[in-house]
Amino acid sequence: MKRAKVGGNLNDLKRRALREVNKQPMEEEGGTLSQEEVRRIIHDLRTHEIELRMQNDELLRTQEKLVEERNQFSDLYDFAPVGYLALDAKGVIQKTNHAGAALLQAFRSTCLGKPFSAYVSRDSVETFFLHLRQTFESDTVQQCEIKLKNRGEGLVYVLVESVCWPQDGNERVCRTALIDLTALKPAEEIRFANERLVLAISDQEAVESQLRRNLSELSLSNDELEQFAYVASHDLREPLRNISTSLSILEKRYKPRLDDDANRLVGYAIQSAATMTALIDDLLQYALSGAAVLQLEEVDCAALLDSIPALLRKTIKETGAVITRGPLPTITADRGQLARVFQNLIHNASKFSGDSPRIHVSARKQDAEWRFAVTDNGRGITPENRESIFALFKRVDQRENSGTGMGLAIAKKFVDRHGGKIWVESEIGEGSTFYFTIPVTVLPRDQ
Ligand code: ADP
């Protein structure tokens, strides 16, 4: 900004006044002036001249004072530590001091006439325009915090305070102060982050304690369920055995004396009692497997598998299934549970493989686990059923009454207890392969 100088030259003024006087020569109506009159006029003129001179001196002093004050204000404006800007209603910069330009990281000359928003970080532009609108719509000071673009590292945080000012004519401008908050920001952010962290931790603690409560309730209800299943299946076994025995005796002794209809009904009853026995056995097994501690031992899987056909004699005879195997390892596992996994998978493979089931069992070591595969040439399993069949009582076709719907759930539970996984891959009409893994070093869950 140009500094003002005291202007106005007294002699110049005098010269101009003389010029005016000379244009109108002094003439008095009615003749020439007396000496006395001339002396008086000259005296008056001198007095006026002195008066004028004094007034002029006074004016000059006032003007000097004004200029001095204006320069002081200008210094104050230019070198104030806070950024001061004048913006029009569109946010175009009309004026700025050094601190304002420094905060915008621009030269004063280059930022004049440019939109202020060009210096605002993208995520603060909306806040700035809202602030500008509010400032022009009100008479009070408006405030907001925004981020400015920074050519160096990090961001420049500023507090913006604006007030709208009437200007000459109708156009209004707003005076805007920019206060640098950058130095305060990291501390403030750390405080916010800390508060958020404390909140998150207390949330997490609440969730964890709820989880713990749920878990203990779950394990309680699991225990109760297992106990109930055990008691129910155990207690049901005895009367069921009596029913089965009585039905067999009934069939044997009275068959010739009963008509066909009665014999068919006895046959259904015997069949249902057998299904119920299987169901109760499975249920008991399932219930017990959760609580029982794994009996880990060295298990020769080849020998174990060779003993399975004897256990499945009836099914194998009915279906004509042919079982083959590749070389199988000796592993550490619970023999009873491992046998049950193979038995259930081979039983299913025989049941769901049509006329001439071909079943092959193989094993492969993969990293730190053994992966077993039981492959059949059966009907296959649709993709939507490949996971759900491992749930309790889940059958693909509920009309099938040859099983209990528990075989795969039991197999899964036993594999889980060894720390392994079980899944199926299948082609509809081509067959299925059930895979399960047993870690080389068993670290059973819940032991
Ligand atoms: P269950 O055999 O007693 O019905 P599972 O739990 O052993 O019960 O099997 C659940 C269902 O999975 C079976 O009802 C059957 O629909 C399907 N399934 C199991 N194994 C096979 C297989 N090898 N091929 C085709 N479907 C199978």
TrEMBL record:
Cross-referenced PROSITE patterns: HIS_KIN
EC number from the UniProt entry: 2.7.13.3
Domain Histidine kinase span(s) in chain numbering: 231-442
GO process terms (BP): regulation of DNA-templated transcription
Name of one Pfam family that matches: HATPase_c
Keywords: Coiled coil, Kinase, Phosphoprotein, Transferase
Name of the featured protein: histidine kinase
Reaction it catalyzes: ATP + protein L-histidine = ADP + protein N-phospho-L-histidine
Coiled coil: 45-72
InterPro entries (alphabetical): HATPase_C_sf, HATPase_dom, His_kinase_dom, HisK_dim/P_dom, HisK_dim/P_sf, PAS-like_dom_sf, PAS_fold, Sensor_kinase/Photoreceptor
GO MF annotation terms: phosphorelay sensor kinase activity
